């Protein structure tokens, strides 16, 4: 390659090809394939908090992790990139990125690759690459490789897939060491005030040694200042570690919640939401005084040793108090744990009633059932209140007993100390200092009571979260190559029953739909039509048989890839608070204005958005508040179409429409079908059958008819006529 070409490459490196390009995603795919790892673009992006729909540097490590790759973004000059970490991703000016595959520092040359441009490897001068680069690079290696161990601080497969909670806590070990060191220094500095008071009483006052007083005062002031600074540093370290844990753990919990299999979501939305809320209890353990109390407790031996040094045998008094307080807390731990467990169960039930009532408020009012839900709510609140009272009783008991021990220790020290002072074995200053030091011994013990309550609540919440984290999720790390059959669909003897159901929703169902076909699935309510769509979209997996889409079993597809192919619109489309535009582009936020305008026209949204002063920026309330059923259906269809799926599955799309709107929908579906998509419509409406060429009749979970529309319609008419004739004969005398 010529120098001029290299210069051109470097100068234009930061410019993406078009508005839909995703350079970092393409670079990740190139590196994954370089290491022999099957790559799924949709799987890489699925569930990531991307503002623009494109992979960014902040989310890159999480995307790479899904393909057993460790990624770390660093500020590096291209001259400082070692050959052992190649291939590496270099960020370029203008938002572009390339893969650096080779560096020859002796000849000052480099080889780069732009995967999104489809071109081959380019050679250029290191100087030109450095000019075009931003100074940020991403090192990527397979998890567990020697290179990965060196550069990624021991991020092995076991650590990456370890316990969702204890793993991140262990990885914050530097912060915990800093907290422990700060606690050690704070407790050592805590000796300053008692020794200052002892020396004032024993040396300064008897001798009126004012210079000594000033010297001691200066020393204790310095100690107090450092004590304050160390406490502030400890608080900041805890806060920083807590924020890091909060962000990481909360993201992992929500990601797991979003990937739960539909078949395991039997505990109810309210209970799941309540369990997520309990994460706050777990988080507070690492950001509150709990850690401070625990670390201070570790170092009470410093003060016990100081007491022994000053007054000898009186040290046995606080020493004896330590196991006594621990015994009290351990004995009360069992009933306290039981009370906390019951309280959290009741709180989950109360939260479930609340969420269920808010979600179904219209149905409750329509049925005039406010009293029923009010009774459920008050019963749940009463049970929760009773359980909470039990917690308060046990926790207050342990705190009051601990306070009794603490006060008794002070009294015993004074009584014993008076006799020792009278015998001349200790001084008055030593006795006063001992009493202060005993307080420093028993202070952490008193805090242990509250620490016990918080820790017990956190453990109970952690057990609930552990149960949720053990629920089965969709396998989101698979990538399956497609064959050349297009988006063909085959159900092979599929049997499926919903969790807890006594009879299967589908039984031995088999059919094939070729790419580009227009098919209607008809049948009575509960016949299994909707279940076909949910299985096709991968929401559930068949109990028996298999579903093949694009040449591969749906269980072998990455769920994100499958749903990129299959656009599913359910009977009750869900919308979310925001704007109309937000709801349309939810699955593809990087969509251009032209793409949005196209689906708005195609779905008929323009008929009601044009009359609003804000147009597509019109506000939408929670669950689509402010839109009619037909308008919600149109928005849901637009949300699917903007992703340009090859298969479109519509479940009762005209259920909420009047006759005029249904005719408009028929026209729109005809245009959609003409685009070459595979169209599957579940319907009771005869008008929608005019759009399709083939009809599948399902009854009681079985396919009873499958053929051209005219043939199936004729068969149905014959059955209806025969049924009427039989009814007429039965009615004759």
Note the main attributes of this structure.
733 residues, alpha+beta, Cathepsin B, Chain A, Rossmann fold, 3 domains, 6-stranded antiparallel sheet, 27 helices, 56% helix, globular, disordered N terminus
How would you explain this protein's 3D organization?
- There is one protein chain.
- The protein has 27 helices and 18 strands.
- By secondary structure, it is α+β, with helices and mostly antiparallel strands.
- The N terminus is likely disordered.
- Helix 15 runs antiparallel to helix 19.
- 36% of the residues are buried.
- The longest helix is centred in the middle third of the chain and has 53 residues.
- Strand 10 and strand 11 form a beta hairpin.
- The protein is globular.
- A six-stranded antiparallel β-sheet has the order 1-6-2-3-4-5. A six-stranded mixed β-sheet has the order 12-15-16-9-17-18, sandwiched between helices.
Q: What is the average per-residue confidence, as pLDDT, rounded to a whole number?
A: 81
Number of domains: 3
What's the CATH first level of the largest domain? Answer: Mainly Alpha
Structural class by helix and strand composition: alpha+beta
Overall strand count: 18
In the CATH hierarchy, what is the architecture of the largest domain at level 2? Up-down Bundle
**N- to C-terminal separation?**
98 Å
| Gyration radius, rounded | 35 Å
Task: Name the shape in a single word.
Answer: globular
Helix content: 55-70%
How many helices in DSSP terms?
A: 27
Spell out the CATH superfamily of the largest domain: ABC transporter type 1, transmembrane domain
Strand content: 5-15%
The largest pleated sheet is described as: 6 strands, antiparallel
CATH topology of the largest domain: ABC transporter transmembrane region fold
* Low-pLDDT ranges: 1-19, 146-160
Placed side by side, the strands forming the largest sheet appear as 1-6-2-3-4-5
Oligomer: single chain
